[in-house]
Amino acid sequence: MGPADRLARYMSVCVCICLEGELSGAQESEFSDQAPARLTLSCKCGIPGCGITAIPTKVSGLSRVVNGEDAVPGSWPWQVSLQYEGFHFCGGALISEEWVVTAAHCGVTTDDKVVAGAFNLDPDEQGVQVLDIAEVFPNENYFISGTYDIALLKLATPARFTDTVSAVCLACNEADFPPGTPCVITGWGQTQYDDHQRAPTLQQAVLPLVSTPVCKEIWGDLVTDDMICAGSDGTSPCMGDSGGPLVCEKGGVWTQVGIVSWGSGFCPGDTPAVFTRITAVLDWVKQILKEN
């Protein structure tokens, strides 16, 4: 059984448990068909050991990607840079050695590269892995308005997991992270909307989750059930952050709840940013992994 088969099998068991509530907050410790016996503080789906950082994060809670602060190098080991001919254009997140999740609107092709383990996007940076893409799987329901804005990238050669390269967990239970939960976005996007230069180092920002009704007060019917909102307190993703992960921490484990999708083109920070909701697309992710 290959890594992709094991991942699909693992995620399928975890999601079933979370949704049926047989063992609330369970995660299995190894691949098996049996119900997990070890309980954790939240429901997580992914490979064993996902969401754990070897290098501790340090988030002030006062930062923002627009005019943001540097992340601790290596502290977000699932963060990847998507590049074309050395130019960063979108972010993404490793969910296993062979798979990356990003936004469909990034328009990734097999001519692009996945750069893992980076901090300053220097090609000579120690520990960086430049990986080819074997196949791109955009969600078939993706529409330019932003619905189902997710794509999966299958790597031609698996990433080698190290202290600075590893996988994030995927959310499978919305109740784990209610509105108001402080979560974190990371990326190399523009630090000012009118500055077309990407951030030279990986930036991080704290964004509280925003309820769908509150988000719709700003964006109306543009916000659909497959989306989740965060921000509006002066923090904001900006151009170049698209496709990157929105992650929340619980019990020492980081879980991806969203994918940077869209928001105000001016990156003002006073309106919520909109993300693809991971729980809404998790069944599709499982299907792609199982079939490929």
Quick structural summary:
This protein is α+β, with helices and mostly antiparallel strands and 292 residues long. Helices cover 14% and strands 29% of the residues.
How does this model look, in words?
This is chymotrypsin. Residues 65-290 form the Peptidase S1 domain. InterPro entries: Peptidase_S1_PA, Peptidase_S1_PA_chymotrypsin, Peptidase_S1A, Trypsin_dom, TRYPSIN_HIS, TRYPSIN_SER. By secondary structure, the protein is an alpha+beta fold. Strand 13 (245-250) and strand 14 form a beta hairpin. The strands form 2 sheets. It has a 6-stranded antiparallel barrel with strand order 10-11-12-15-14-13. Strands 3-4-5-8-7-6 form a 6-stranded antiparallel β-barrel. Mean pLDDT is 81; it is low at 6-42. It is globular, with a radius of gyration of 17 Å. It has 2 domains: 69-74 and 168-279, Thrombin, subunit H; 79-166 and 282-291, Trypsin-like serine proteases (Thrombin, subunit H, Beta Barrel), CATH 2.40.10. The chain is 14% helix and 29% strand. The longest helix has 18 residues, at 3-20. It is built from 3 helices and 15 strands.
